[in-house]
Amino acid sequence: MITKRVRSGPAGEVKQPVKQPKRGDLVAEAIKRLITEKDLRPGDRLPQEAELQQLYSVSKGTIREALKSLEVQGLIKVTTGPGGGGMVVEVPLDRTLQLLQNYLFFKDVSIDDIYQVRQSLEPELAAGAVPHLSEDDFAALEANIECCDGASGPDDHNHLVRQRQEDMTFHDILAEANPNPFLRFICELINEMIRQLIEFRNDTPIADHRRFGATNSKIHRQILQAARERDVERVRALMVEHMTEAPKHVKRMKGKLRGRLILDSEIRKRTRAIVATVEKDV
């Protein structure tokens, strides 16, 4: 990395070295501008490497370094071989969560803080989703409730924790039906934080897990029924009740937010892998 020292003032004071951006970083920024200016969407392809080389007057190595940087950021996917190159992709929620958690790692964020935000947002999210829920959505909500019923499955701590994690999918389904993309994003991000970062002690009584699961299943069924009836205000009121009671259960079970950095190796695709695991255990 190139640096230079600059002297100024009568005493010959030496300023801090000025770091020059690497060429690969500059090209990555230029490609970001290209994506913006051309309004490229997920699935659209970037120009081939040779075209990018000519466009930015840099070597193949520099282009590949820039593309790798953008891939790490989750903005593109790079393939090799004939017809390979960079393709624009939607930044995964897990990558966004990783960046957010890296920031929150140095902050004193509690479970109460998270649920305070949920109490404000989830009722509006659910109410806004009601007019847009399809029969497929209702079926998915019903299946999730059956999957997470606190009375089902073995008396195994790990299984019951996975059920509590999968409870969040009920809220994800509602989020996906809400037409407000920003509200949807914030709520899905919070759901993923709860799914990945809240943990319970191994000695938490099984009865407490089952009580929490049964409470969730009951309120989820009531929300589902009200949604089927397209009763927006009833859904909103039930979600307020749900968001008020849920943190009480979490604290009673001594749940805590893990203060840790999320590793790249832990980032997973949102393929509902937890559902398959839970169903296997049932």
UniProtKB/TrEMBL annotation:
PANTHER family: TRANSCRIPTIONAL REGULATOR, GNTR FAMILY, UXU OPERON TRANSCRIPTIONAL REGULATOR
Entry-linked Gene3D superfamilies: GntR ligand-binding domain-like, Winged helix-like DNA-binding domain superfamily/Winged helix DNA-binding domain
Regions crossing the membrane: none
Pfam families assigned to the protein according to its UniProt record, in alphabetical order: FCD, GntR
SUPFAM superfamilies the UniProt entry points to: GntR ligand-binding domain-like, Winged helix' DNA-binding domain
Organism: Paraburkholderia caffeinitolerans
Domain HTH gntR-type: 21-91
Cell wall biogenesis/degradation in keyword set: no
Region (Disordered): 1-22
Coiled-coil ranges from the UniProt annotation: none
Gene Ontology MF terms: DNA binding; DNA-binding transcription factor activity
Descriptive protein name: HTH-type transcriptional repressor NanR
Keywords for the protein's UniProt record, in alphabetical order: DNA-binding, Transcription, Transcription regulation
